[in-house]
Amino acid sequence: MIYEWSKCVEHEKSQQKRFLKSQWHSPTQFMSISSSVIKILFMIMKHFGLNTNTKYLALNLYQKFTENQFQKIYKENRHDKSFNEWKFMRNKIVNLAKLRLMTCIQLASKLDSYCTCFGISKVLSALELIDQLKNQQHEYSFETVLYSEFEVFKMIHYQIQFITPLDYIEILLSLLNFQNLSELRSITIDILDLTFLQHQQLLSQLKLIKFSSITKKTSKRLQFLNLEKELLFLSSTIIVCALSFLNIEKTISHNIVEKLSSLIYIDINDIYTVAYIIFLIAYSH
Question: In angstroms, rounded to a whole number, what is the distance separating the alpha carbons of residues 173 and 188?
Fold first, then answer.
């Protein structure tokens, strides 16, 4: 299993390097979903009793949708010096954002076979709930929701990335052979949620570290500021952060971190650095 995992990790990291290189000068390179949007998504998931796997699959879908949408608009209007078209498209995107977000939840629930389907009637209820929270009022029809589903699918080119940070965490945890696995898993999922809710704070802290002269010499890995695209790195640091909340010996904890480092081929100091930042964020909340 370890051998097969190593081959999988090498393939994943080579694909990631190619992607980052191809997208380095792209305007979507460091795009991320805002905390306010993630809070709405988490609230809807909890309100309708949808599970964690569906939640992160929906986040994947919405991230990909927004990136592709922005990239498409950028290519079509990059020569618009007056920015009139940009302003028009921006307003259109803002007005449709919550509908597109609910559509991503709807699609994720259909794809997750263990989840009760988030059908059109629930999408309409969710949109009404969001309007109530924002003191707004909009009219949405069954046809509008159906059309939105088609638009999202078309924008992501009918390609869905099924692997989420939760999947990476589950795989890494299963490879660690940790005794109190259920307790560690529970804490890890809570920290995963918090990391996404506070990801802007996390990225700002990483930027400070990246421009530290000491860190630049010892840690090139931190150049990858967009952790949503470094899921293995993010997942391992979340697990290490979770270990800090358990009453275990430092030797055992360090051995686990060393094993994680060897499994994902990332320097142990980089894992500790980001895990510590996440710990500070978690501790403050």
Answer: 10
Four-CA torsion 7, 10, 14, 17, nearest 10 degrees: 150
Alpha-carbon gap, residue 47 to 79, rounded angstroms? 44
Residue 149's Cα: distance from chain center in Å?
21
Cα dist. 208→138, 179, 214, 226 in Å? 42, 36, 12, 14
Rounded CA gap, 220 and 41, in Å? Answer: 33
Report pTM: 0.83
> Could you give phi then psi for residue 164, rounded to 5 degrees?
-120, 170
Q: Give the relative orientation of helices 84-111 and 120-133 as an angle to the nearest 10 degrees.
A: 130
CA 214 – CA 200 distance, rounded (Å): 23
Place of tokens 């302003």: 87
pLDDT digits (tens, 9 = 90+) for 28-86: 444 578 888 999 999 999 999 999 999 999 999 999 899 888 888 877 777 766 666 66
**Structure-derived torsion over alpha carbons of residues 143, 115, 236, 238, reported in degrees to the nearest 10:** 80
∠ CA 83-86-89, rounded to 5°: 155
Reduced DSSP (H G I as helix, E B as strand, rest coil) percent helix, strand, coil of the chain, to 5: 75, 0, 25
Asked if 186 and 239 count as a contact pair (C-beta separation under 8 A), the reply is no
Q: Are 230 and 281 in contact (CB under 8 A)?
A: no
Rounded CA gap, 26 and 74, in Å? 10
Instruction: Give the torsion sign (CA, 145, 161, 118, 184).
Output: negative
Is 284 buried (19+), middle (13-18) or exposed (0-12) by CB count in 10 A?
Answer: exposed
Per-residue pLDDT tens digits for 178-189: 777 888 999 999
What's the sign of the alpha-carbon dihedral 229, 232, 235, 240? Answer: negative
| Structure tokens that stand for 250 in this block | 């430092």
| End-to-end C-alpha distance for the chain, whole angstroms | 37
